[in-house]
Amino acid sequence: MREYYAYRLQERESEGKTLHHGRRLFQQFVVDSYTCVEQSRLRYFRDKQKQLRSEVYHGLKDAVFRGDTTPASIGKRIVLPSSFTGGPRYMIQCYQDAMAICRWFGYPDLFITFTCNSKWPEIESFLSMHPGLKVEDRPDIVARVFKIKLNNLMHDLKRGSHFGRVLAVVYTVEYQKRGLPHAHILLFLHPDDKHPTPAEIDKIISAEIPDALTEPEAYEAVSQFMIHGPCGAANTNSPFYRRRDDGRTVEKNGIKLDNRFVVPYNKELLIKYQAHINVEWCNRSRSIKYLFKYINKGPDRGTFVLQENSDADPRSNSTQITEIDEIKTYLDCRYVSAIEACWRIFEFEIQYRDPSVERLGFHLEDEHNVVFTDSDYLDNVIDRPDVDKTMFTQWFKANEMYDSARQLTYSEFPSKWVWHKNISEWSPRKSGRSIGRIYYAHPGSGERFYLRMLLNVVKGPRTFEEIRTINNIIHPTFRAACYALGLLDDDKEWHEAIRQASLWATGKQLRELFTTILLFCEVSDPYNLWVSNWEILSDDILHRQRRILQYEELRLSNEQIQNYTLEEIENNMVRNGRSLKEFEMMPYPDMMRLRESNNRLIVEELNYDKLGEAEEHARIVQGLNTDQRNIYDEVRKSVTCNNGGFYFVYGHGGTGKTYLWKALITWIRSEGKIVLAVASSGIAALLLPGGRTAHSRFQIPIKVGDESTCSIKQGTHAAELMSKVSLIIWDEAPNGS
Predict the structure, then answer these.
(1) DSSP of 526-546, one letter per residue?
(2) Whole-model pTM?
(3) Cα–Cα distance list, 530 to 456, 564, 618 (Å)
(4) Strand locations in 351-421 (E)
(5) 572 φ, ψ to 5°?
(6) Which of 280, 544, 616, 734 is 20 to 30 A distant from 251 in Cα terms?
(7) Which of 586, 532, 597, 595 is nearest to 561 (CA)?
């Protein structure tokens, strides 16, 4: 079906043009065509594969020994597999492959976004031959031209000298709902060609407007493609590129924009491709996995609102329980644009990796999967000539036949050998590149987990028994072999499990893994496991709290981050009927501190750099005059002793009241306590560090009468804030003091 629609989308001089000149109807045609193709494939997985069964080999033999010769009650259903391009399992596999490349070559160096330009000469030249058609009327042409340009860009990046020698490339193609396709590209550079210093970064990435006289081509390209929203001080997400105030500007819609509005770019690529090509230097941190998750997040979905039907019977309290259906989940709110439909019909890549990643399956002895149909007799299935041939067992055979093969671990094997799936054999690699990725095994999976640990260490085994052989001693289990190699001393397997998972798993998944290890694995020192890995387990906590509190400037201390992480782990434990209190020396979350941390008003007032405030306070105190110092000492004594009381400081403008306020404010904040700085007018409030108007802070009515009260209700965040305040400074109070 796909090939038929791909044939119909091609324009031929000998055929009519009605379809291609349909404009919006043509867009509808290509979308309907692709959805038919996709639905046909999904129907196969739903209807045909229901007849397929899968079971481990020894389980199948046991069934035959019991006299069961039909597969009616044997095996498990196959749902939407990773072989379905664009599905959730497919995207997860692509993400894991990308992380395997990252483990092999290190952190990526450059993140490039390449967006299609609808005004490319190739597109405009084609449209000029079809009067009346606009670029949106021919998504097939846009897709084909973008694919050509993307291939050329890949060639330039891998063969050219723009950034140096490229060791690996990963990209994914996305489609804007009402816009143009774009590719997210990650480049891994040779160690000798990395750019660790700002001066070297400035050679390959620019965030400035070129000179219009000396570089007119570059100036025009930047003006047209690389001017965007504010950066620098206005956008702290991209502060480290050089943006000099050199007086150069670009006029957009009558507004002059300077270097603060330039999206980082590479000058050579921008001039050559005449398109938006954003080039960003990648940060070296564990959070890089979220970049890989972003580029493998899957297809677009539509957004809509469900409203309750007011005519529904209010007495109806029925609930409908539905089973998990991966195909239905994939289709729910699925959004397909005309560009994506053409791209998929032409079978262009939506994911690209160079080098390729060979996914290495493994299994315990006689526990490899066997696929069969409902109509197969089980005794015939186990008698198949190649039923025991798997990628893993054929690795043993290659090690037995070739001495050179015995110099490599299982994950290293694809770099020198090629797996031929059609004949189930490994052969020496003659050309090309590939790296290996062993499938993940959960720590709770028993011997499979320990087998995977050994496969990363042991070279050239010819049998399962040789994997368990350490120093000429055959150990009864893979776990015992791991102990003999010293892989399990001091809970090493659990530390390694968390470290390995941290390369690809989210913070939430890592905390669930930690919970599983505590509950179901034999951990000798839970406290040490926590202390050694709490930073890994909490790598998304700050981002999550910023999102919850809608406060991007939020800062958390290590103690606060640990507290949030422990709360998440404790919640996981409670869902399993357990608690962290059951584990000796394991810390327990401080629930009172957590409650305060979820109060945005308190968080804002505590979100100051105590060390910086202390330095500022020391500087200010040295400049206090005698009268200021006397007031400062009196107020500080009262606050320290918790005596309470009111102090009125009177003085006309310029006598140093604000300077005194700053001394007290920086002192309180350097102690990690709360001081509320308010003023009766907005202008006066701006002069106080973190100042606000009194009406805003205390919710004072605009029109004040004899019976007016502040509208702070008991139990609210504002009331809780007031209970934590150490000092209130009110500048220009109503009585003039």
Answers:
(1) HHHHHHHHHHHHTTTHHHHHH
(2) 0.71
(3) 25, 14, 38
(4) 351-354, 356-360, 369-373, 417-420
(5) -65, -40
(6) 280
(7) 597
